[in-house]
From TrEMBL:
Keywords: Transferase. Residues 6-116 form the Glycosyltransferase 2-like domain. The keyword Transferase applies. InterPro entries: Glyco_trans_2-like (IPR001173), Nucleotide-diphossugar_trans (IPR029044). It comes from Aureibacillus halotolerans. Gene3D superfamilies: Spore Coat Polysaccharide Biosynthesis Protein SpsA, Chain A. PANTHER family: GLYCOSYLTRANSFERASE, UDP-GLCNAC:BETAGAL BETA-1,3-N-ACETYLGLUCOSAMINYLTRANSFERASE-LIKE PROTEIN 1. This is Rhamnosyltransferase. Belongs to the glycosyltransferase 2 family.
Length: 301
């Protein structure tokens, strides 16, 4: 039976963490190990983790507060060898068959390339009342698309050891989200499986590090303000630059071309137009694509 290691990063998660740990321990797939890194909690999270550790349900360690992305990458680097790995947030609730279903998909694939499974989510409020299911947009699942849009959050990810190695062998800096980085690397260098059926209750509350904006109007208004009225660096472009500098030698063909176009588009007006009207570097959302064209031409993407 293949082994899976679940990696969870915690920070002041006392309110919801028991629900998530119990949902992981209740999985129908039982060759599973849960490892937790606490990112400097000041509430009772560590006491909760220790209580589960004493029962043999998980192992955990703590460190300084380095934020979720680097905390998860630290977990990846310290994790023991396994067949598969999964990311877990501290405040969601997994369906009992989440891991089993993911492995059914993954086991059908070849193992000599990076493979990542992800899915849609069931959005719930803090009391687990269903809000709605996340979007089932017709994602093309291409590397070019991943440069501007990720279809699913990291809390749904299950991936093989080849994918894990991509985060393991390099010293990473300026990573704003570990899951976005892993998704882009795997879609560019291996294969992504996208399951349109949700197997996780993705809890939305006031303390989410990354949530799911309920209103498309609010989401695009925030995007408009961020890009047109602030000088905040674009995180997608920063990550693409890092991917090129750290992993660029691994990319070939169209994926390398897309990376080059995205990273170097600010060098001239012609290059901006080339990005703006590139057929592969596009979102699944028509509204988002309008923003992409405008921002590319303005050099603010």
């Amino acid at each position: 039976m293949k082994k899976i290691v679940v990696l969870m990063s915690t920070y002041n998660g006392e309110e919801y963490i028991k629900d998530q740990i119990e949902s992981i321990l209740s999985q129908t797939y039982n060759n599973l190990e849960l490892i937790v890194r606490d990112d400097g909690s000041t509430d009772s999270t560590k006491k909760i983790l220790e209580s589960y550790s004493l029962k043999g349900d998980l192992s955990w360690y703590s460190g300084e507060n380095i934020k979720p992305a680097l905390s998860f990458i630290n977990l990846v680097k310290k994790a023991p060898r396994a067949d598969y790995y999964a990311f877990s947030d501290q405040d969601d609730v997994w369906d009992s068959d989440k891991i089993e279903i993911a492995l059914d998909f993954l086991d059908k694939k070849q193992t000599n390339i990076p493979i990542l499974y992800c899915s849609t989510t069931r959005l719930v409020d803090k009391k687990l009342n269903v809000i709605r299911q996340s979007s089932k947009n017709n994602y093309r699942l291409t590397f070019g698309e991943s440069l501007v849009q990720i279809p699913s959050p990291g809390c749904t990810y299950v991936f093989n050891n080849k994918a894990r190695e991509l985060l393991h062998y390099q010293q990473l800096r300026d990573v704003y989200m570990h899951d976005a980085l892993l998704y882009k690397l795997v879609i560019g260098l291996g294969e992504v499986i996208f399951d349109k059926t949700p197997h996780i209750s993705y809890r939305q509350h006031e303390n989410n590090v990354v949530g799911n904006e309920r209103s498309i109007y609010k989401k695009n208004y925030k995007r408009f303000k961020r890009f047109f009225f602030t000088n905040e660096p674009n995180k997608k472009h920063i990550m693409a630059c890092q991917i090129k500098s750290t992993y660029g030698h691994l990319f070939i063909g169209e994926n390398f071309d897309s990376l080059e176009i995205f990273v170097g588009y600010r060098r001239s007006f012609i290059k901006r137009l080339r990005l703006a009207f590139n057929k592969d570097i596009k979102s699944a959302s028509k509204v988002t694509n309008v923003f992409l064209i405008i921002l590319s031409i303005l050099g603010k993407l």
